[in-house]
Each structure stands twice: as structure tokens, then as C-alpha cells.
Amino acid sequence: MRTNSRRRIIAAVAATCALTLGATACGSPDPGADSAAKDVASALEAGGKVTVWAWEPTLKKVAADFEKKYPKVDIELVNAGTNNKQYTALQNAIAAGSGAPDVAQVEYYAVGQFAIGKSLEELSPYGASAHDQAFTTGPWSGVKYGKGIYALPMDSGPMALFYNKKVFDRHGIAVPTTWDEYVEAARALHKADPKLYITNDTGDAGATTSLIWQAGGRPYKVDGTEIGIDFGDTGTAQYTGTWQKLIDERLLAPVTSWSDEWYKGLSDGSIATLSVGAWMPANFVTGAPAASGDWRVAPLPQWTKGAKAGAENGGSSLAVPKASKNKALAYAFIEYATTGAGATARVSEGAFPATRADLESQAFLDTPFPYFGGQQANRILADAARDVGAGWSYLPYQVYANSVFNDTVGKAYVSSTTLPQGLEAWRATSAKYGRDQGFTVAE
């Protein structure tokens, strides 16, 4: 899932897209599926096997429920690895012309890269466009590329502040409501105990772009094959100005997320907050069980006092690869898994919904979280979902861009390079790659 696998998927997707860019608008809907919506009902009646590549555990219940409702259908769940590991396997299967699944879990930032490579089925003809009001803003925009819909949202990652109440109370520090207060809290914690850090960060593309998103920055502009990349906006400047202070004053734990050291920091309180997506609670329960009762959830700090601005951080969709042998039945499954009873079942298993109906459900809002001291955390997370800023775009080759983040922006964490300088290097590298693949990238 590291450098080698990233290079393989980057090369495979780029090669596919390079072939299509010269012939047509890469990522445009497939006009040859006009009767696809009619095929869905007949596919369910006929039955068959649907192979699903996904790492999301709540799909186990969805698959069982779907098979019970449609006895002629067999859903085979395969964990081909998380994110890049699965993407590499998927692209290799597509390139080989065999072995591709009927359904694949694809994170929002990666949808565009597969769409431009014409690796995903455009789902509007099957009825996907009828769900345009069913999902919250961030996830719905994440499954669209150009005029097409290439997946259906499976979950959501609106950002919130997870903080260790026990640590904050012990040192008399108030929960920050602005990013300026966050910096002050970081200083106070580290002064009280040099082993305490407000959070960890060694350079993370997803966290950086999400906080720029929340600050109002919109660095990526995508219109077909024409792309703009600009980190010179006010929102980006707000982010870099604040985060540079944390780096310069050594207020960030030099710990990589998802490592054993990271989980230890969450458990003992030496990492005191996380600004991440709403999918995080289950990871606390399984990864830092010793800290149960210590943590709480609060709204994400704001760049402007009194504002209510949010952003997405992570989240996945379900897509139908072009190579699927049973596209109509595959679509029927992903529609079931992401809407109605299927979505509600996943929420009951611990997933955070992308559907407005589930977000507004009283049962969902009233759910107590023992890990967070009985707090009804979904109320805060649901508000965060409604506050996600509109108009965000990822690059159609964001998988590649993220893979070179630590070679550019990451230098700001280990050298005299500043965050603005690192972002400019990231922009230049991403722009060059886009041009090399046939995109028109504005200066």
C-alpha cells in the first residue's frame, strides 16, 4: 500500500486515461446504456452472483439481508485490501481483462481517477440520478465527475474535534472553538507537560486538503480535461498560517497515524485531540479501549469566530466497474446498500450515514456512545454533515497527487521548507503530471 503499489495504480490508471483523452472527453457518461434501468428489475428476478470487493465490515449484514430479500442472488464479499492495495488489484484485473469484481469500494478522492480511465460504469441510466437529494452535499459531489455519476455514496466523513476530556480537565484547558484557541490550547498542554501534544501530524494529504476545504479554500478547478490548481487563496493562507505555528513551535506529536505509537498516544492521552471524519468512533473503541470514557466529541474549531463551516475527511462509495459481467444486478446491490433499508442497517452496525434520512432519524441522533461517556455524539456529527462547504473538487488524478504529498509538503515537517513553499512544490508536481497525461492545466 506504500510507494510500489501507488506507482502501479498511478501508471495503470494514467495509461488508460491517456488513451481516452485524445478520443473523447475523459469521464463522460456512456451513452450505450439507455435501457439499463429496465434491466435492473429483470436482473433481480433472474438472480446470479455479484462479487463485491470492499473492506467495509458493515456490508456483511447488508449482503445477508439482500440475499434474504432476493434468494436467487449470491453476494460474494472479498476483502482485496484497503484503499490503494485494492485499487492496485482492481486496475490490474481491469488491465488483464479478467478477474475484476462486479462492485468495488472506492474512496471519494479516488472516484475521479477511475472515472477518467473509463474503468467505472456511469450510473445515471440505471436510476442513480433519482437519488440526488438523498445524500448529503460532500458525499454526493464525491461520486460525480463531469456530468456523470460513477458511484453511490456509502458513508460520510464530516469533520469534528475528538478530544480527551480527562486531559483537558486535568490541566484546566477549555475546549477550543476557533483555530486560534486551538493553538493556545496546544501551547498550554505542552507547557503543562512536555509529553502532551494537541495532536499528531507528520504530513497527511487528506487532513491538509480537508482543513483547507473548511477554511473556504478551493484549490482545484476541474472542467472536463481543463484543470486549475491554485493554493494562493485566502482559505489556504489561513490554514498554513495556523499550522505553521504548530510546526515551528514543535507542538505536534511526530507520530504517524494508524501506527502502534499513535494508538498508544490516544490511549494514554499524550495525543489529546484528533480533527477527523465521523467514521472515527469505531476506531477508538477497537484501537484505544483503555481510554473509554476519557474522550468526547465537539464541533470542529472555526477559522472565524461564530462561523459554522465544515468539510469532509474520508468516506467511501460503491461503484460498478466497467469490467463487471453483471452490471444491472451489481447496481441493484449498491443501490440497496447505500439507500433505504440497506443504509439504515449499516448505520445500526456503526457506519456513519451519507443519507439525509438516516442523519435526521431520531434513533440515530439519540444514540448514546459509552466510549464518549454516554454522549449523544451523533447530534454533533449530524450538524457537521449539514455544515460541509459546497463546491469542493478533487483532481481527476488525486491518487497520484496524494502519493507525492510527503515528497513536497511533507518537507515542511522535517526541514526549513515552509508549508506555503511545500504546497507550491505540490502544485507544480501535480500540474506537470496532469500535463504529461494530456490535461490542460492552467498556470
UniProtKB/TrEMBL annotation:
This is Sugar ABC transporter substrate-binding protein. Residues 1-25 form the signal peptide. It holds the Pfam family SBP_bac_1. The keyword Cell division does not apply. Keywords: Signal. It comes from the Bacteria.
